[in-house]
Fold these 4 entries.
Entry 1:
Amino acid sequence: MTTDTLTRPTLPPGPPCRWLGLPELGALRRDYLGFLSGLQRRHGDIVHLRLMHYRDYNFFHPEQVRELLVAAHEGLIRWERAIEVFAAAHGQSVLVAEGPAWKRQRQMLQPGFAPKRVEAFAPLMVAATEQALAGWQSGPEFGFESAMTQLTMEVILRSLFSRSDTAEGRRAADAVHAISLIGMQEMFWPASAPLWAPWKTGKRRALQTLDGLIRGELARRRAMPDFQGEDLLQMLLQLRDPQGRPLGEQALRDECMTIFLAGHETSAAALTWWGWCMAAHPEAQRRAADELHAVLGGRAPSAADLPRLPWLQACIKEVLRLYPPAPALLSRISTVPLQIGGYTLPAGSMIRLTPGIIQRDPRWFEEPEAFRPERFDPASGHAEIPRGAWLPFGAGPRVCLGSHFALTEIGLIAALLLQRYELAPAPGRPAPIPALRITLRPTEPLRLTLRPRG
Ligand code: HEM
């Protein structure tokens, strides 16, 4: 036995267990990020909670985050309750599946989201953005968040189905909003009531809208055997498993739903916070606009231009640090005993990793609450950020499948927007307050002042 195991208590520090952890569950529900941040301040990098029948471990150090997500990946599954809630909309897609089924799905889908494949979507991202920008009315109270939601919805509908239907898109946006709010509440209940329960009307209708949208698009494509486009649905239709079989109808529906849902909500949240950060930091915004002028001279950007816009990229990375659209990764459950940070976690432990807190740690980010894009600017000579300290897309084998797609989309939209408009806070409105609703959104819909750039 080593000295370490002799002196280490068997459980990491944490609040005493009272009432099966009900007070802690209540605190998580009221203010998830605030509560966990307080725990880290009081107890350190590894914090233990007793929540009902779970031993709940929180890890806040980048090294342990990587140890878990990368090295210990095989010994983790996602928390069953969260997956149950997600499965109501996503079915058995790559986001929901575990084990060999997940590995098979991920291997099949991954090539379709590689940087080269994603580049092919850049022209349609640019076209969708130019069309949206042409319809915007500048003024002091522009509905920025709803414009970003509509635009990212438009981009995903065109990328996935080669479709552009704003009325359907708007209905779907409302349904996604309803599902996110309901989903967040349901996570804290041990089970969901059946969909036929009278108080489930909202969820039932929202799911029907989304399911109708996806199944309608699948039927439309089946009726177009000569379709020549290269959208994501076409990529899904061409997939074959090792035995040469295509995806079944339900599997197609499920993967489409996940790409649709995961593919626009998060990007809309990122662009919303990017808009706020630009509006609140006019010097950073001016520098980004000057860089765009110098590199593009007024022409529309392409995917190949994005690496030549280091300041714009640094601003986007800093936004994803301060306001990660997914500030809490899906909680994991260990399926085998794990040795992490000097503790033994028994099989069945709940593991919580929270980029929303890790990314605001002053040990890795000086003045962590401040918007300082230079931390990510290679030319600034800023201290290197440890791996695992910036993880808006997660890490390890289950890292976001759409990260290239998202960064290309956000970069192009940001560039086109700043070429035409200047952003400023709406007069008399307070700074937006972030709230966790599966994705991180302002408590009130963000409005900004939009001025045409001279
Ligand atoms: C700024 C935008 C985005 C952010 C911040 C984001 C974030 C994330 C994160 C953190 C995860 C991992 C969750 C976990 O480990 O618990 C994830 C998974 C995933 N994301 Fe994204 N995402 C974004 C955009 C997209 C887009 C555009 C797509 C598709 C077009 C997408 C598709 C997926 C899928 C399919 C998974 C599940 C992967 C798996 O389990 O193997 N995401 N995303």
Entry 2:
Amino acid sequence: MIVIVFVFGLIVGSFLNAVIFRLHSSESIIRGRSHCVHCKHELSPMDLIPVVSFMILSGKCRYCHKKISWQYPLVELVTGLVFVLLALSSDFRLLTSEFWYLLTVICFLIIIAVFDFKHFLILDVVIYPALILATIYNLSTGFFVEGIIGALVISGFFAAQYFVSKGRWIGFGDVKLGLLLGSIFGLKLGLVMLLLAYFMGAIVGVGLLITGRKKLSSELPFGVFLSISAILIMLYGQDLADWYYNLLGL
Ligand SMILES: [Zn+2]
């Protein structure tokens, strides 16, 4: 069963790569065959097997021999891995609406993370469908009020930073992402998610400073850390929250 979930994740990851590419090039997501980004040669099914094709072709296009971005196999592998971890954390109850809800939200977050990393941008066409999905799910589970409170506090927190810094600390995309993540987690889990994101951001930021790759003033796309933190909270949120609130003695 684990293998089936993993392979399913690889295939979905390959689809997410196509979505990320087409969102940027404003091609239709549904129509049109996949093609090489360099030579535009149409790709055969043999070139589209997740991870395997990349390895067989040793990371180069079969037709023009230019390099294929490591993003493609990486996103596929990460999606496969996260799907497996989600299946494990839900004890393989794979037919529940909760499982498929979390799976779908994770796909949205992977798109947001990769797109923000590459282009420093969080797109409305990704945020709004996810926000609608979360709202409908919250209505069906009675989490609606918690979701609204979480959304208002977390996006309000980002909005304050956005206006105080005039957009230097944080982008307006993060304010919208705060709406989505607050809706998904509510306030209690949302704050743990936020802390984890800042913690990861600080570690990576200090790491980049020490190795001299970034200057203090250069910004890191915070949406990446928020998305990764959110996925971790979906997988291990209750454990992390219990541990953290125990620590605080709450
Ligand atoms: Zn090519």
Entry 3:
Amino acid sequence: MDTSHRAAVGLDFTAVDFETANRSRASVCAVGAVRVRDGVIVDEFRSLVSPPPGFDEFEAGNVRVHGLTEADVVDAPGWDVVYPELMRFIDGDVFVGHNARFDVSVLLNATGAYDLPWPEIDTLCTLQLARSALRVPSYSLPWVASHLGLGDFDHHDPLADARMTALVLLTLARLHEATAVAELASMLSVAMMPTFVDELDSIASELDSSPDPLIATGFVAQAVCFTGALRLMIRDEAHRLVVEHGGLAQAGVNRKTTVLVTGDFDSRTFRPGANFSAKLRKAFDLVDAGQALEIITEEDFVARLSLSEEALRSRIAQTGVSRRKLPEWVMVQSGAGPSGDYWAWFNAALAHPKGRAAGGEPCIWCDAPVASNIHWVHRDRHVCSVHCNERYKRAAARAWDRAGIRRPAEPAPWER
Ligand SMILES: [Zn+2]
């Protein structure tokens, strides 16, 4: 486990961007990253990725965004190979993403699909920084880049996006005369989020009310209006989802509107200078007049709804509080202690006594029902998500540590 956090001093960080093959956050198919030292991009990392088995189907919506297909990744290394390389590149830096919730979620879910140890790093979101610092019609990367005068770029090429994300942070730092990443985050009241928080009670209690803080944002206290044709759903369904996620669905744009979803554009074509309808131009005028109205694409809308399987399961789990105790049988089953190969015993002691889940069994960590189509790593443990899987494994390790069962150190994949 990597515990060597780099001190957040100076303008040092790594900006990362992922693309996925389908709506699952585990389906990583490409990654780009740039390393920044003292405010200057000094190195870059890029790789296509063959998505984890079971998550490798390319969906049309994703192909439309990034243009990658199965043929592009057929010879690419798997995430189990790229992950250690990326972690060595990040080397304990603050992980910066534009909409970092998405990128961190991909990092954790893809890693969970291989049951590899999670990284422990701090993350920071330039979308949140931009929302705090700027007033623009859209906070997607092309609009923020254009507003800051950073020029054109090949949006949804992961390396181009990572590079632009880094430039956005550096430009905001210059505008605010911040000389360190932590200083800029603090000035703009944006929190740096750790990738794993179970041991931190102050943050964990916050998490209990929002079990998947890395994904779900929703539309609480937002007035949401739609314009143009939606590709994925009918207007009624969209309105229902807004209400379900805490928002107010509106028929027309007015002075109360805080979010306008535009169905006629995707994240490639919705950029400064495109041809906009009268309804959209009215929205731009309201922003110019000072209204806090954000225009987003249908993709952004779906991302904020958290319609991924993982997020839907988390929503179901919201009523349950995060468990801090292991089920009794885990300690009973592990009572014999390790004989021979410690890690083989560790995994055997974690296996659910009733065997493989058929679907619907309660998660052994949070009690949410385990979906029937969930990846085998989690199904064998009757765990509803990679987040619960990780919390459960760590709780078991802590319990065995307390019981005096010594385990050999397991080096993280990037330390081997
Ligand atoms: Zn769970």
Entry 4:
Amino acid sequence: MTWPGLKRLIAGIILSTIIAAGGVHADTHQQVQSIEENGYGDHPDLLTWNKVSVEGIILNRPDFMSDATPNQDAPFGPGAWWQMYILGEGNDHAATAVWMGQCYENMLPGGGIYTNQQWLDELYRLSCDPCSGYVFAPGDRVKVTGLLKFYNGKTNINERHDTDPANNFTIELIEPAVGLPQPEVITFDDVKDGNDNFIFDPNRQSGCEYYQGRLVRINDVNFVDPNSWAPDAEMLITDGNKTFPLKLGIGWGIYGGSNNLTEPFDVVGIFDQEGDWKGDYRIWVLNYDGNGKVLTDRGYARYNLPGDINKDGKLDFTDFAWFAERWLECAPGSGGCLDGS
Ligand SMILES: [Ca+2]
Ligand SMILES: [Ca+2]
Ligand SMILES: [Ca+2]
């Protein structure tokens, strides 16, 4: 071989070694969420065992979205489950949900069930960066690597409902505390047509698909039925003309049970889809800080009254009853309570 030929060979070997060391390249969230005309996902790795990586900003605290308390004996469905949304940045106008459950056997025979301790270990593994031990929070920039699975309108990263460690996904820190972006302001007309039906664009350039998974704000709305407020409740908001589904999370500002919003109010939440591939969109608000004007959690309350559990600015029997009702409850993994349980 001539010297120039040998040089090209060496350069080629070095280059391919660098590429191999780089591991899985990151897909955009737009690539992962891409769909066919009927709304079903069309990413090629929905049909392979290749793990896919995406990068973006953590949008939510999983514990405000679902109750992940271990329950290995859950009779139906996944029992305990956990979900985190990862938001694309820059031109990557999409987002991907990362999901797992404890009792896959109820969902997919052969999928297995995590024991309560295994489930807690899995959640702990996913709650912090594997190298540094840094504990994740909303606003962190991370890289998620795992298998893709389409579910009810979204392409998720999950374990394909199998406890086999080969199906694990990983979350790695890229940069801590980058911060949450400002929500994108939308109107009912952006996502609902003249007949109050969801606008569905399979190219995902407009309508509901364009906002799926994104942090959005919708201003000047009323509840259709304010009395349906409850943790995890499905509500409806309206501008007096069109309506949109709103799902409340289980953040403890919502658990307190207080709806003190002055109508009309604004909403900031995650634009989600779960159900029909071309419909069943909703805005998911995971917590409420009691501010009275915007249904969202800005991270601080309207009043600074220690012990005001439902954040209504009053320390009264409601707070006491809430406290008394849960006296001596303790969270799994907290080391047990005074009564030794
Ligand atoms: Ca969709
Ligand atoms: Ca696993
Ligand atoms: Ca109170």
